[in-house]
Amino acid sequence: MNAPLSNGLFSLPRLSDKHGRCVTYLRLSITDRCNLRCRYCMPENGVQFLPHARILSYEELERLSNIFIGLGINKIRITGGEPLVRRDCLEFMEKLRLQHPKLDLRITTNGTELVQHLPRLRKINIGGINLSLDSLDTHRFAHITRRDKLATVLSGFHMAMELGIPLKLNTVVQQDTTDDELVQMASLAKDNPITVRFIELMPFTGALVPSQSQQSEPLNLRLLRLFPGLTEMEAKDISTAKIYTMNGYFGSLGIIEGESRKFCGSCNKVRITPTGLMKNCLYDDGILNLRDLLREGADNIEIGKQITAAVWNKQPDGHQAAIQRPGKCENSMATIGG
After folding, report:
1. pTM summary value
2. Ranges of each domain in the chain
3. Does domain 9-336 have CATH number 3.20.20.70?
4. DSSP 3
5. Phi/psi zone of residue 206: left (φ > 0), alpha (ψ -120 to 50 degrees), beta?
6. Under DSSP, is residue 127 helix (H, G, I), strand (E, B) or coil?
7. Measured between alpha carbons, how far is 248 from 22 in angstroms, rounded to an integer?
8. 76-99 tens-digit pLDDT
9. Can you spell out the DSSP letters for 138-183?
10. Which residue in 123, 51, 55, 129 sits closest to 91, CA to CA?
């Protein structure tokens, strides 16, 4: 049986790195499995999913969450793969909420399983949902995801709006994404209190797909051309996105320049993959094997110390992190934790 969180953990310094950044945000991936096959994320036949024994159990996920919260983490986002395809995902989230009522608890999902879970997500006071949605055209959606699920995803979107759950839409801008598609996606922010965030295509594909950097027009310039009335908002919180308002829009538009890595200077997050590998950056190769520490009997204090030391050595930006890894960053995002 896992030992309860020791009060001694709170005597450890809060998570920070040698570049003066405080880490308060944990992205916790609970599965590498996904029920879509997005062309920019994985091959048509999927990737080779991990055996169950290599995935962190909910007990291990709970213990790690408690350790990170003891080190000053105040925001946890549940990710995947598609987190809602893992059985008992909501039970795990309910348990976290019960133990930590003030925790900013959020989830990222592709929306295919969302409708059935929205009432429970609202009941646990979910801090927000990031919904991945790359097209509003049925045929285009089916082409991108290799699944005909747009109607199901939009049902979840509208239900979340009805329930008043904070929502952000994440749209990956691909090489063949047209201007009309971007305008259509942006229109969702015109009548809804949401942020539609356009994301640079990054190299975590599981397949050979050209990166955003190879496109002729940078994403930020493209959006400014399509929406000349955009006005950048002053950031209230640390964010990977630049957020813009526009006259006549109830919501807002955003840009996430992940491949350009322009937001690294304020990065406040770390990631844990489904196998328990801690990553300071999407572009690093993993810097601490938490699963092995858990299963080899390390106590919470020892794990906390190792986490603290690993975060201290966080690279200044994604470019430096990529240089340190031995190979190219071509893993599927599903195996990393989106």
Report:
1. 0.89
2. 9-336
3. yes
4. P
5. left
6. coil
7. 37
8. 999 999 999 999 999 999 999 999
9. HHHHHHHHSS--HHHHHHHHHHHHHHT--EEEEEEE-TT--HHHHH
10. 123
